[in-house]
Design a protein that fits this description.
The N and C termini lie far apart (75 Å). The protein is of the alpha/beta class. The longest helix has 28 residues. It folds into 4 domains: 67 residues, no CATH class; 147 residues, no CATH class; 73 residues; 86 residues, no CATH class. About 6% of the residues have low confidence. It contains 20 helices and 7 strands. Helices cover 60% and strands 13% of the residues.
């Protein structure tokens, strides 16, 4: 007996719903009930193209992979952007891109805009993030950057503004949004503004997003605005691997370039190994490793292949991830404790308590080397780190000696 389309839809929805809920939880998406249902309905429509028997046979990993792939197609990415997933709850992925720009700005411009890079005075750079948020408001501005820098043009020094925006989803009327930002910035600063939008979505655009916004009345032109567009998916992976030999920052963006599905594990491994080989221990290395990790999510079979490819560096990768997660956890726990107290003093005490607790535990477990601990010192500004390290190590030595004597 044939099963009706409505029955098919219900079966597919029952299977897909918990998977979408897990994705929302992982990505910290807070969807309203109607938005969630619409997202589920759209995905069900896509999966109805698969025969029921074949759909039932798919594992959760297979389904999750296909869902992520669908998120990168134009109709789905446009819908996700329309319900303000990214603007309201910026993911680690978006934050990492801005951190990478801030930490590697010299290499970034040499990689993407070499003709401008060699005219910039990097010692003059100022990030005007607070001014940008104050001017426009809105949480999405947290991952935009406004950079004040001196450049040499025709043997003269000019101070310009670079408005940089990272976009992880395709947006309708994006060029108009960039133009609005340009108008506000120019009105405020009256300086030459160079606008850049870097698209990090994994969709291969059938129809490119316009990089131009025009205004006219009949045949009378009023305005023609352009912004510089960087679409990472438009680069093939071989190009970036070649670039990485001279500019290792290219490894961090390698997973967002164009390559075949079967190459996903090896691309991630090349990116990770390249960063570990070319960047010393510290915040820059940890940020780039985290960026790669957020850029490409592997299923269980891909993860096994990837683990083999990074086997020689697996211990170092674990240490780097510990460094990054520790930094975030310290800031989070200290702020949370401070908010509970509801006072500046309480916030300070809460932060100190969290720092002392985490640092003590790290020393006791011997998870990080002395050098890596020294790299974390700036995070523990509120406490005497050297004194605490010596005290904890002394206590541990005494404890270890006591255990040996007991045998």
């Amino acid at each position: 007996m044939d099963i009706s389309r409505e029955t098919h839809q219900k079966i597919y929805a029952i299977r897909l719903k918990p998977l979408i809920q897990s994705i929302c939880k992982k990505k910290k998406w807070r969807l309203k009930k109607k938005s969630f249902q619409k997202l589920l309905d759209k995905l069900v429509e896509q999966f109805l193209e698969i025969k029921l028997d074949d759909f039932i046979a798919l594992t959760d990993d297979n389904l999750l992979y296909q869902i992520y792939q669908l998120f990168e197609t134009e109709p789905m990415s446009e819908y996700l952007a329309s319900i303000d997933l990214v603007e309201i709850n910026r993911s680690e992925f978006d934050i990492r891109h801005k951190e990478a720009l801030r930490l590697c700005i010299n290499d970034y411009f040499k990689l993407f805009l070499p003709d401008i890079a060699y005219k910039m005075d990097y010692s003059s750079i100022r990030f005007l993030d607070k001014e940008l948020i104050a001017l426009f408001g809105g949480e999405h501005r947290v991952t935009d950057a406004l950079i004040l820098v001196d450049v040499c043009i025709d043997n003269e020094i000019h101070t310009i503004l670079i408005h940089w925006e990272q976009q992880s989803n395709r947006k309708t009327f994006f060029e108009e949004e960039m133009f609005h930002s340009f108008c506000g910035l120019y009105f405020q600063y009256r300086k030459l503004i160079f606008p850049i939008a870097m698209f990090t979505d994994q969709a291969s655009w059938e129809k490119p997003i316009s990089d131009t916004y025009k205004l006219k009345l009949l045949d009378y032109p009023i305005n023609e605005y352009h912004y510089h567009q960087i679409k990472l998916k438009s680069y093939d992976s071989e190009t970036f691997e070649a670039l990485a030999k001279k500019n290792p920052l290219a490894y961090a963006y390698l997973p967002l370039t164009n390559y075949g599905k079967k190459d996903r594990p090896i691309i991630k491994a090349k990116a990770m190994n390249g960063i570990l080989s070319n960047f010393p221990d510290g915040q820059k290395q940890a940020t780039l490793i985290s960026l790669v990790d957020e850029s490409i999510q592997l299923d269980s079979n891909e993860q096994k292949a990837y683990n083999q490819l990074v086997q020689d560096n697996s211990k170092q990768l674990q240490e780097v991830k510990m460094f990054q997660s520790l930094e975030e956890y310290l800031l989070y726990k200290g702020e949370k404790k401070g908010k509970k107290e509801g006072k500046k003093e309480g916030k300070k005490e809460g932060k100190e308590e969290a720092q002392r607790e985490i640092l003590t535990r790290l020393i006791e477990l011997e998870m990080l080397s002395d050098y890596q601990l020294s790299q974390l010192v700036p995070l523990f500004g509120q406490i005497n780190t050297s004194e605490l390290i010596e005290t904890v190590k002394m206590k541990k030595r005494i404890c270890d000696m006591g255990q040996k004597n007991s045998f």
